[in-house]
Design goal:
Elements lengths: L4 H21 L7 H13 L4 E5 L5 H8 L3 E6 L2 H10 L4 E4 L12 E7 L10 H11 E12 L4 E8 L2 E9 L2 H10 L2 E9 L9 E8 L2
Parallel strand pairs: 1-2, 1-4, 2-3, 4-5
Antiparallel strand pairs: 5-9, 6-7, 8-9
Helix pairs in contact: 1-4, 5-6
């Protein structure tokens, strides 16, 4: 099967920026009150069991979840990102994979986090992604998404983290994303929409949902 162009472009871009990306975002959580709040709520709802961070990048969110007591591992499309994550957090497990076809058994996870990792998927392909998330989560398992809020507008990126790249990003509608999650078998538990901070240019959205029993 031919790989979708957006997958190829996303992998190439993140392979290129991996080291600088990790450095720029290394301590970001320390200044992100609402990020920590949503991750903390997720951790309290999933106190035990297996958790995956899908699109884990250099591993900082997985490491934070591990510090909160979760049994977590990471999956990322970019081999270079996975390499950086393994170097930075040798006590955690990181694997190369794609959210369109996770190498995980059905109903094998108690929790799943996709932290700004669905933003390079064209909105028309998100139902496939959410169906895959539903497949690997146990009934009653929790899903936490974070993304830039908008109206599904496509934004082409040509320079990032001191490198030339070429990939698309999408600012997603929280209401529309919640509708797609519902269609995939999720029930919304909580949402948060906050104003931009620091280098951010758009509001930031967090959706916490539970896989229906």
């Amino acid at each position: 099967m031919t790989e979708p162009a957006f997958v190829t472009e996303t992998r190439a871009a993140y392979d290129t920026v991996a080291v600088d990306y990790a450095e720029v975002l290394r301590d970001l959580l320390a200044d992100s009150t609402f990020d920590r709040a949503m991750l903390g709520a997720f951790a309290e709802l999933v106190p035990e069991g297996r958790v995956a961070e899908i699109g884990c990048g250099p591993g900082r969110i997985a490491a934070h979840l591990a510090s909160l007591g979760l049994d977590v591992f990471g999956v990322d499309l970019s081999p270079r990102m996975v390499e950086v994550a393994r170097q930075r957090y040798p006590g955690l497990r990181f694997e190369v994979g794609t959210m369109l076809a996770l190498d995980l058994p059905d109903a094998s996870l108690d929790g799943l986090v996709a932290w700004y990792s669905i933003i390079h998927t064209p909105p028309g392909r998100l139902p496939e992604v959410f169906a895959e998330f539903a497949r690997v989560l146990k009934p009653g398992g929790y899903l936490l998404l974070a993304f830039q809020a908008g109206d599904d507008h496509r934004h082409h990126i040509e320079h990032a983290y001191n490198h030339d790249v070429s990939l698309d990003a999408y600012r997603l509608s929280p209401d529309r994303t919640a509708e797609l999650l519902s269609a995939a078998g999720f029930e919304e538990t909580a949402r948060l929409l906050r104003k931009p901070e620091g280098f951010e240019k758009t509001p930031q959205a967090y959706l916490l949902s539970q896989r229906e029993h």
